[in-house]
Every structure is written in structure tokens, then in C-alpha cells.
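Preliminary data (for renewal application), zinc ion complex.
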Amino acid sequence: FGSSATLFLEASQQDVSQNKSSTEKSVAQTLQVQKTQSSKPKYQWKIVWRNMIAFAYLHLGALYGLYLLLVAASVYTTIWSITIGAFAAIGVTAGAHRLWAHRSYKAKWPMRIILMLLQTTAFQNHIYEWVRDHRVHHKFTDTDADPHNAKRGFFFSHMGWLLIRKHPDVINKGASIDMSDLEKDFVVVWQRRLYIVLMPVFCFLLPTWVPCHFWNEKPMYAWYATLFRYTLSLNLTWLVNSAAHIWGMKPYDNTISPTDSYSVGIGAFGEGWHNYHHVFPWDYKAGELGNYRTNFTTGFIDFFAWIGWAYDLKTVAHNMIKRRAARTGDGSIYERTDDHHD
Ligand code: ST9
Ligand code: ZN
Ligand code: ZN
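Predicted structure:
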């Protein structure tokens, strides 16, 4: 404000004393504004080498793990890896995402504890941090304040955002996000406090120990199988931020980057109906129809609703969806052929 006032005074004085033409004045003003702006600190990437090394190791280890699972390890180790990967995914989709980030249903404490342990197995940061980044992503989608802003390209929105320091806008604008609901949930609070112990145990140690103890798997094979399971589930999750913000249909809102993607939907346990999800984030199905084959997470929540542990499941009225699609969609809703859009 101070520099704008100085600018104004300087411009006025010049006007009186030198009687310059208005064109000259505006050139002087532009130069002055440019000077003021260039004195602001410019955002620069800051690589976090610890993460670079960790993710390089994870991906190389995962490739070796895949090789071992295919040619050397016990078939039980493969079945075990898939099972743990699936349970961990549910912790992210039904837990961190649909329950804690969006409050699209309510869950009794035993279900919340189960979901918390599954989410810990997925090691995608503790629930509080995961939810904070995700709420910021929804509120500031496709801007610098979006932690994995898809406008910065496939690699950044996929994995790159975890390799560099966050854009200052993420932290500044993220401060406006209300997290008080999570601060009151004892399951979230205690997971955050104990994360440094819980995460290594549930994501790495237990999944590696079980194959060695129960079917005499070689420890090295079990370790690389763990790296494969973890790295694959990370990449499937990241595809929601990258691929499902770049390629696919936009049946509900054509003006935003998120898309409905059948293949991401399957791989990410029903989280690929991302155009729908960004328009109606409170729907517990995170998709319009949520049939179980393409939306396994919905089946999981419905099961817990059936036994009474999940309740207050929120959905969206059919008419409201239809009206919104007609108003802002890309028209693809009228060409439904796949499972999701039957
Ligand atoms: C991972 C997460 O992979 C994946 C999330 C994916 C989300 C997908 C969404 C789609 C939904 C569906 C799911 C489908 C699932 C399918 C499964 C299929 C199998 N707001 O972060 P710091 C402040 S994680 C407000 O350190 P730096 C805050 O004060 C992988 N404030 O920033 C914070 O302090 P504190 C494993 C914010 O230093 C302070 O800033 N994990 C916000 O720039 C510093 O925060 C890793 O690899 C915000 N949003 O570092 C760890 N953010 O926390 C990677 C920050 O004390 N992370 N603040 O309150 C890191 O190393 C660092 O975070 C960093 C940035 C280097 C990336
Ligand atoms: Zn979401
Ligand atoms: Zn998104």
C-alpha cells in the first residue's frame, strides 16, 4: 500500500511540474509497478533430497519385489501382499477420504479404530495431515494453493509434490481450513501422537514378519514384497491426483480439471469418479451410481452400515445430479456405456 501511495504522489508531481503526456505517465507507472513486484520474493523449487532418495529406493525395490513375487517367492506371499494392499487402500478410501476428509458418513468408534489402523498400514501420512492436504486440494483445486496442483503437470501432481517443499500459498491459504472436527476425534489425535511408532509397525514390520513366521518366507523376499505392495498402492492413489485430473470425461462439470476415469476407478477402489466427486464431495459413494464392481469402497461402507457401525450416509438427489450435468457437464452423461454409467 505504501509503495502504491508513493507511486501515486510521484505520478501527480510529475504531472504538474513537467506536464508530461498521459502515455508517458502510464509507462512510468508500469515500470514502477514492475520494480515493486520484482522486489517480492519469488517462489523457487526446493528439492527435499531425503524424499528423492527414499522414493528412488522404494521404486527400485518394488521392481525387484515384483520380480521375486513372480519367480521366487511363495504364492502365499503374493496373496498376503494383495490382501494387505487391499485393506490398506480401504483405510485411505473409506477412512481418510470419505469419512475424515469429507464427513460423508459417520462411524462408531470401533469402525474408526479399524479404519485408522488400515490407514496407518497405507503410510500416506497420518490422517490429520492427509485430510488437511486433501481439504486444501478441494478448496483451491488447480491453483498454487492446491498441494498437488494438476496445472503443474502429470509428474508434479503424481509424485513430484512430495519431493519438493510446498508452495507458500498451500501453507498460507491452507491455514483457512477448519480442522476442529479432527482435533476432537480421539482416534485421529492418538494416531497422530503415536504415528512414529504405529506407521513402521503396520506398514513395514508386521507385513514383512508374517510371511517369514507363518510360511517360512525368506526375510529378503518378504521385505521386497512389502516394498512392492506399498509402492504400487502409492502409485494407484497418486493416479487420482494426476491421471484423473488430466484425462477422461467431465459429465458433471466441464470447467474443472477432475475427470471420471473408469480405469483409475477400478485401481483406486472406487475413487476414479473424480469429476463427480469434486462436484458432490459429500456423497459417501464418491460416484453417482457406486456399483460395487467399480466402487469397492461403497460396498465396504454399506456392509458396515448394515451391521450398524456406519450411519448417516449422505447421497445426492438424482434430480440435482441431472440438473447439474445438464447445466455444466460435457454431455458425456448422455453417452453412458460403462459399468459406472449404465
Ligand atoms: C502420500 C499422500 O502419498 C497421498 C495423498 C493422495 C491423495 C489422493 C486423493 C484422492 C482421493 C482418493 C484416494 C484413493 C486411494 C486409492 C488407494 C488404492 C490402492 N494446509 O508438509 P510440510 C503447514 S504420502 C495448512 O512439512 P514442507 C503446517 O503448519 C507418502 N497448512 O511442508 C505444517 O506443519 P505441521 C508418504 C499446511 O516443509 C508446515 O506447513 N509420505 C499444509 O513444504 C510444514 O508442512 C511422505 O512421503 C496444508 N495443506 O514439506 C512424506 N501443508 O504439519 C512426504 C503444510 O507441523 N512429505 N502446512 O502442522 C514431506 O516430506 C513434506 O510434506 C514435503 C513438504 C517435503 C512434501
Ligand atoms: Zn475428496
Ligand atoms: Zn482431485
